[in-house]
Amino acid sequence: MAPEVVSGALSSPLPEKKEAPAPPHTPQPGETKWYHFLPEEAPGACLKTAMDLHWEFAPSIDLGEWKAYRPSDRKLIMEAKGSEFILYRGYVWDGATIGITTVALLAPTVVHDALYHALMHNAPITRAIADSIFRELMTQHRFPAAARYYYGARCAGAIFNKPDTPPSLTIEITRKANLPEE
Fold first, then answer.
1. Over the Cα atoms of the chain, what is R_g?
2. Are 88 and 110 in contact, with CB atoms under 8 Å apart?
């Protein structure tokens, strides 16, 4: 953009102010503003995050440090920073694998599905960590069948932990998690 001359003085136009992006949001129990239903947009999936989401877990939960990108356009999908997990706007998931997805299950299932998705592409975490986070979030969101769903994930989760072809995520690891012995 060429500078403007104002009253004989040379001046540059002021740059346009850009609004700072909203900080990632942590869904609270019963809250519904952070997702959209997808009736026809994504076959096999029915929900999509409407904003960037953030969770901070107990310091004893170490997810390592890594970022997951969509291979086709290098769009950042999710990232882990120690005990923090960030899931970016536009992540698509299918809710509960078995049963009805209630409002109390939305946040637990999006985190669990995203962590399993990352695991399928060699994120440096374990199923046990993903499942324990699932249990903790179900408890926080007051889901009455949390224990049953947790044990279902522990027993059947390996079935859903196979890499997809072609890969739908590229994981870049900065630091591996400090994993406890299983």
1. 20
2. no
CA distance 41 to 63: 31
Give the count of beta carbons closer than 10 Å to the beta carbon of residue 43.
Answer: 7
Phi-psi region at 157: left, alpha or beta (left = phi > 0; alpha = psi -120 to 50): alpha
Q: What is the dihedral of CA 111, 117, 118, 121, to 10 degrees?
A: 170
For 48-82, how does the pLDDT look when each residue is reduced to its tens digit (9 = 90+)? 888 999 999 998 899 999 999 999 999 999 999 99
Say which residue the tokens 């399993």 belong to. 116
CA distance 139 to 117: 22
What's the pLDDT score for residue 97? Answer: 81
Quick one: tokens of 46? Answer: 């029915």
- For residue 93, the SS3 value is strand
Peptide bond into 163 cis (omega under 30): no
DSSP summary character for residue 25:
B
Q: Which of 161, 129, 134 is closest to 148 using CA atoms? A: 134
139 backbone dihedrals φ, ψ, rounded to 5°: -65, -45
What predicted TM-score, i.e. pTM, was given to this entire model?
Answer: 0.79
Note whether 104 and 141 are within 8 A (CB).
Answer: yes
Q: Which residues contact 127 (CB under 8 A, 6 or more apart)?
A: 116, 119, 154, 157, 158, 161
